[in-house]
Amino acid sequence: MSLFSTLRISSTGLTANRLWLDTIASNIANANTTRTPEGGPYRRQDVILAPQGRAGFSQFLGSANSTTAGQGVTVAGIAKDTSAPRMIYNPDHPDADANGYVAMPNINIVTEMVNMIAAQRAYEANVTVIGAAKSMAVKSLEI
């Protein structure tokens, strides 16, 4: 494994964590959106991550004498949360049903904030790996 593969692997993590953070930001921004082009309230979204360059878990384990590490991470997709919307009684709202209830997005701000911290920490960890690889390269040039 070369220095450049370390940088490439960490860069896939940076890209994936940035998309995760963008998805969280979209969820928070739409926490009160009651109308979407598809109809109904906004649905919370989740990023689905998968290992890059591996066909399955058995290949991920590899053989006991394997000298190759993983190939990074890729975004397998963005899935919409299928849980039911929150129903809030507000008969004056333009989107209220006949009983006065409004279907609100299925977003919990506390959950989104926890996910945001996790995405931030994962991003910072990948930046640290890139910094360590850079430091190792500089030290090897000093030899």
UniProtKB/TrEMBL annotation:
GO cellular component terms, alphabetically, are:
bacterial-type flagellum basal body, rod
Q: Which residues form the Flagellar basal-body/hook protein C-terminal domain?
A: 99-137
Q: How does it assemble?
A: The basal body constitutes a major portion of the flagellar organelle and consists of four rings (L,P,S, and M) mounted on a central rod. The rod consists of about 26 subunits of FlgG in the distal portion, and FlgB, FlgC and FlgF are thought to build up the proximal portion of the rod with about 6 subunits each.
Q: Does the keyword Nucleotide-binding apply?
A: no
Upper lineage ranks?
Answer: Bacteria, Bacillati, Actinomycetota, Candidatus Aquicultoria, Candidatus Aquicultorales
Q: What is this protein called?
A: Flagellar basal-body rod protein FlgC
Organism field? Candidatus Aquicultor secundus
Keywords annotated in UniProt: Bacterial flagellum, Cell projection, Cilium, Flagellum
Origin superkingdom:
Bacteria
